[in-house]
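Protocol step 4 of 5: obtain the predicted structure for the target chain.
Materials: sequence only (see below). No template structures provided, no constraints applied. The aim of this step is simply to have a reference model before the mutagenesis design in step 5. Sequence pasted as it appears in the construct record:
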Amino acid sequence: MAILTSHPQKTNPVLEQTSQRTSLLGPLRRWINQIQVTNSRTAHLICRVIPSHCPFERDISLFGYTIHIPALCRLNPVYEEIVDLRLRALTYLMDTCGENISTYIR
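Step 4 output (structure tokens):
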């Protein structure tokens, strides 16, 4: 006859921290997603403030060696929402206002 005992499940502290962080940032993410671009002035401001590429990516040359610092923007927990906001602003300028957005795209 076998005796079954229950063992407490081990939890992963990294996953717990990630779920806590996402739950804390949920209201901020929803707020950014709810921003509606309704005039060209706001759209231009958003496109000027939010860069089209990560400004932290660099190649540094020291003593004949090149060190590449990768783009770290993906580590930002609200990166996707910010990029989506910029895309909504660009779309508004192009579709609704009929403006040329090539100055905001690199």
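Step 4 remarks: Residues 25-104 form one domain. Residues 13-34 form the longest helix (22 residues).
Proceed to step 5.
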